[in-house]
């Protein structure tokens, strides 16, 4: 196990506290991640100074959560969250302490934390590690254990249950038996937690190397149904052909198959087949089929993401990817067919749509896919994109105004004619000149009027 090396910046930051007779400890995730050899994105500190005293020590302080004792100090361009040692008591609503109290003792502060591996502290005076809950042992043995009584800790704050599944996924740690048992029996209390906090935890889980670790554990423990019931509906629904897994597991493993730094595709993969249970029918050979499941899946995914209060742009993007994930390219496709495909899907979606399809294959077989047809399709799309032919109305050599100047009256005809012109140009790009398009549009207008 590594020791903690305090950087020059943190040591300079800490000396401001020490010179004023306050102590300062690095706590929480930064200590855990550092000892595991991982980079930590943020640093949380605990101190015996009150928030007002911290504010008086520095020039730039944001009162982030001053009622809970947290302020953010901007120190040489970095944001440091500093929280006054505190205890919490009474959790009538399974989510907020009824009261918090500032204390002068680090031990009390460490005992209010969720897991032993999150209750390690580093004394900034000498880098020594304070480990009052055997967190170092659990870190070494890769065990996730609640501090004290897991039932009590999860009853106090139900979010800790989901945090548990999240940490076990991101760190690939095993749950201590009693901790997992408590998570299982108290899972239903998650309904007390705001959807925003649930969404943020799920996003962290979906950024792990293998989100399936937590998603499968949540499914096994009967917890997934409280958060994503639509996913569990696919459990035990078998699929045919190359599919190795049922619909629920296929969605979950597809999520693993998407790149971890692309949360949009991760979510699209997780939800891309949620509509299959609703669209299930049995064909003449007694095999399951799922006609138009992509449309039902997209609409269900939209409902789920709305419930989780995803921003509209992210929700719409995921919906669009799911809607278009069922394409069936064959080498016989003409260039015109490929141009029509690009125009329908939109250039900005192509990369993510192919990532989704590779993820989908991964989720079917459990292996990375090198689908030759898909690779050939991408190559042909790239060739077409290099040709820079018109792929949207914006790219036409003519505008609505040009049509009006050529004598076609303003009104709904204009939009309709532009759409038809695009179809013509997608079929044959050599039509994309002003002269040709004017001639074609006059013909179209005569037919329409
Ligand atoms: P990460 O930053 O990777 O999400 P973290 O452990 O730093 O992980 P934070 O949410 O930043 O998590 O919280 C910092 C610390 O505060 C935690 O390590 C833990 O000690 C404590 N903590 C956070 N949320 C809770 C909670 N719901 N109950 C008890 N302690 C908590
Ligand atoms: Mg943190």
Provide a descriptive summary of the structure in words:
This protein is an alpha+beta fold. The protein has helices spanning about 10-20, 30-35, 50-55, 105-110, 135-140, 150-155, 160-170, 175-185, 195-205, 210-220, 225, 230, 245-255, 265-270, 275-280, 295-305, 310-325, 335-345, 350-365, 370-385, 400-405, 410-425, 435-449; strands spanning about 25, 45, 60-65, 70-75, 80-85, 85-90, 100, 120-125, 130, 145, 175, 280, 290. The protein has 4 domains: about 10-140, Beta Polymerase, domain 2 (2-Layer Sandwich), CATH 3.30.460; about 140-225, Hydrophobic Seed Protein, CATH 1.10.110; about 255-385, Hypothetical protein af1432 (Orthogonal Bundle); about 395-449. It has 23 helices and 13 strands. The strands form 4 sheets. A 7-stranded mixed sheet has the order 3-4-5-2-1-8-9. α7 runs parallel beside α9 (about 195-205). The longest helix has 16 residues, at about 350-365. It starts with 7 loop residues before the first helix and ends with a helix. The relative contact order is 0.06. The mean pLDDT is about 90. The site of adenosine-5'-triphosphate has 11 residues, from α7. The site of adenosine-5'-triphosphate (ATP) has 11 residues, from α7.
What's the SSE blueprint?
Blueprint: H1 8-19, E1 24-27, H2 29-35, E2 44-47, H3 51-57, E3 61-65, E4 70-75, E5 78-84, E6 86-89, E7 99-102, H4 106-111, E8 121-123, E9 129-130, H5 135-141, E10 143-144, H6 150-156, H7 159-170, E11 174-175, H8 177-186, H9 195-206, H10 212-220, H11 224-227, H12 229-232, H13 247-257, H14 263-271, H15 276-279, E12 281-282, E13 288-289, H16 293-307, H17 312-323, H18 335-345, H19 350-365, H20 372-387, H21 400-405, H22 412-427, H23 434-448
Parallel strand pairs: 2-5, 10-11
Antiparallel strand pairs: 1-2, 1-8, 3-4, 4-5, 6-7, 8-9, 12-13
Helix pairs in contact: 6-8, 7-9, 7-10, 13-14, 13-19, 14-17, 14-19, 16-17, 22-23
Bound molecules: adenosine-5'-triphosphate (ATP) and magnesium ion.
Residues 28-29, 42, 44, 113-114, 118-119, 157, 159-160 line the site of adenosine-5'-triphosphate.
